[in-house]
Amino acid sequence: MSNKHRVGFLGPFGTFTEQALLTQADLAVGELIPFRSVPDVLDAVESGAVDLGFVPIENSIEGTVNFTQDALAFDYELLIQREVVLDIEHCLLAAPGTTLADVKVVLSIPVATAQCHQYLRTHLPDAEIHPASSTAEAARTIAAQPTPGVAAIAPRNAAALYGLNVVAADIADHGANQTRFVLVGKGHIPPPSGHDRTALVVYQRADQPGSLISILQEFAARRINLSNLLSRPTKRGGLGDYCFIVYADGHVADELLADVLRSLHSKQGAVKFLGSYPAAGEHAHSAREHADTRWREADDWVESLRVQISPS
Questions:
Q1: According to a count of CB atoms within 10 Å of the terminal CB, is the N or C end of the chain lower?
Q2: What is the per-residue pLDDT across 85-107, written as a single tens digit (0 to 9) for each?
Q3: Dist. CA 292–CA 254, nearest whole Å
Q4: Which CATH number do you get for residue 148?
Q5: How many CA atoms within 13 Å lie on the side-chain side of 225?
Q6: pTM of this structure
Q7: Is 173 within the bounds of a domain?
Q8: Do both 249 and 297 map to the same domain?
Q9: 237 in helix, strand or coil?
């Protein structure tokens, strides 16, 4: 990637999003542009104001970041280019000289305060919780307008960036806290890496018994593993009008996965492709690779039969 690429991310500087972004050497050398919200990032990518966008989409404790997932599924025609997983450490930050006993107000993004709910109940039961647009924005607000007794839940690196002290470190309720981020862009599918993931939105042809099974069977029959399956309201109808967001192991260039897409497209109400991209983490189990081999063998067998067809 050229260093001329402009990469928008959920800002300001000092967020976990920026921290994850900087782990990607090719992205870190680009022009990094912070935005106040995820929709602002996605708007900038769609309009061409930036070349790529980098946003959070899933947390190991809170689950899917619905406003990101829904925006990609329903509101934008953008494709996921890659994913990045970051270990999260929430810290309580405040102006120098502030102690835990001084804290009366805590600022942060609602997802972060939810992940530190037990700590806040135990150590700051009387503190008021005020929302911020991001963890780093909470830290920046305190630094810009120091107020006695106000603290922020934010990344450790935001303390150094905004001149704050770490009042308490690693305050999340659960130790294994990770967030998945995605890089999105327009009209480009990365080539297969051998360890890929494909995201789809599948709309049912009709709300009837067995409709979800009919979708899942397309993957199961081909031994394709699903890493995530979400049911989301379509926002087109009333209660009960749902679609399914599917994350499957494999790449659209793989014949087996391509066969699933063909089948879903022909049988279901609609299918929206959200991208095929390199997956983070260790390589998945070999079940799909074995299925690929068997599918190719079956395809060769069918072709060997077809060549025996007599000309008319």
A1: C
A2: 999 899 999 999 999 999 999 99
A3: 8
A4: 3.40.190.10
A5: 13
A6: 0.81
A7: no
A8: yes
A9: coil
